[in-house]
Design goal:
By secondary structure, the protein is of the alpha/beta class. Among the domains are: about 40-225, Rossmann fold, CATH 3.40.50; about 295-350, no CATH class. The chain has 13 helices and nine strands.
């Protein structure tokens, strides 16, 4: 290697080293967190992670937004997840559900809002299994604990039966009750926050979800409401000021219409120019066709009209019949005529037909 190349290589290495040192000293590479909002599917279904997990475990999931006794009686599933506000409660429905549980069904009742506790039939069903709601639980202060599942802080239960499975929070309040009856069982809780997609990554929530659903065989019927995702108008009605919106739109329309009006006043269109007389236009057309040797076009046009009228009025079709009829109308033969004579004959024939 020559001396010049060696010096160039050393200079390049020195420059590269200095540049690397400056970049390393002045800049820092640090990871950034990008917040990805949940998809529309996840916003519509707060149980989406649970559904996918159950399907991954080979457990079929059927979902309904509302149910009646007729729908439940026709269900092939032996496990039902039921939000009590989405079911029409009657004495007949309670009797059927008690018998259905005794015959081997699993019913997961979700007391999704406090007003359902005034349903007489629902309270009768809970009393049938020895379960009561604690009226003093709602006003109590409550904090979530990562070591415990995310229970509903509004509702707690009082259970007299010692054979029932009772899950409590850190404060010692009963938040989920499982009571067996015959070959089946009843599970009761408030809103199951521990099953929501945003909470299933907590180990306590996932263990409880697995204990409830993975221990059962067969498919589940979920009767639960869907979350309504509001669009633009829903967001405006909820958070926006419609008066400001309408005023802005009105001002925009006025400005746009004002911009369309010319600043120099109304545009006056020119009057329609008179065309040439019809006679002059026909003469110009005839001169042009004569110069091109195409005056035969006039003969063809007249003959087409004459044949059409003779066919329609007298039923003539053949050329020979038409030629004889034309000779009869004029009283002479139509051959060997000058152009002007032929046109006059055609006009005479059309007048006499």
């Amino acid at each position: 290697m020559s001396r010049n190349k060696l010096i160039s290589l050393l200079v390049a290495a020195l420059v590269l080293g200095i540049f690397t040192f400056i970049v390393y000293s002045l800049f820092e590479i640090s990871p950034t967190t990008r917040i990805v909002p949940p998809s529309r599917e996840a916003r519509l279904n707060e149980y989406l992670a649970l559904d996918r997990w159950l399907e991954g475990q080979g457990i079929a999931v059927q979902t309904e937004e509302y149910a009646t006794l007729s729908r439940i009686s026709r269900a092939e599933e032996r496990q039902i997840f039921l939000q009590v506000s989405l079911f029409r409660w009657t004495d007949e429905a309670v009797e059927y559900l008690v018998r259905w549980i005794e015959e081997g069904g699993t019913l997961f009742l979700v007391l999704d809002y406090s007003q359902v506790l005034f349903e007489r039939e629902l309270l009768f069903l809970l009393e049938e299994f020895g379960i009561e709601t604690d009226p003093e639980s709602a006003p109590r202060a409550y904090t979530y604990d990562l070591e415990y599942p995310n229970y509903d802080r509004r509702i707690s239960f009082i259970v007299e039966d010692e054979t029932a499975l009772i899950l409590k929070d850190r404060s010692g309040e009963a938040k989920l009750v499982q009571q067996s009856r015959g070959a089946g069982k009843l599970i009761v809780s408030g809103n199951p926050h521990f099953l929501f997609s945003v909470n299933l990554d907590n180990a306590a929530n996932s263990r409880l979800a697995s204990a409830i659903f993975a221990s059962e065989n067969g498919s589940w019927l979920f009767i639960r409401g869907a979350t309504r995702v509001q669009g633009l108008w829903g967001s405006l009605l909820r958070e926006g000021n419609l008066a400001v919106l309408f005023v802005s739109v009105l001002v925009l329309l006025v400005v746009c219409f004002w911009a369309l009006i010319p600043g120099f006043g109304l545009v006056r269109g020119d009057g329609e120019k008179p065309g040439k007389p019809l006679r002059e236009r026909f003469l110009a057309e005839g001169r042009f066709l004569k110069s091109c040797g195409a005056l035969e076009l006039y003969h063809q046009a007249y003959m087409r009209e004459i044949k059409r009228q003779l066919t329609r009025k007298e039923g003539l079709h053949g050329d020979d019949e038409i030629q004889r009829r034309l000779a009869d109308i004029l009283g002479r033969d139509l051959t060997n005529r000058h152009f002007n004579e032929a046109i006059n004959d055609y006009k005479t024939i059309l007048e006499r037909i």
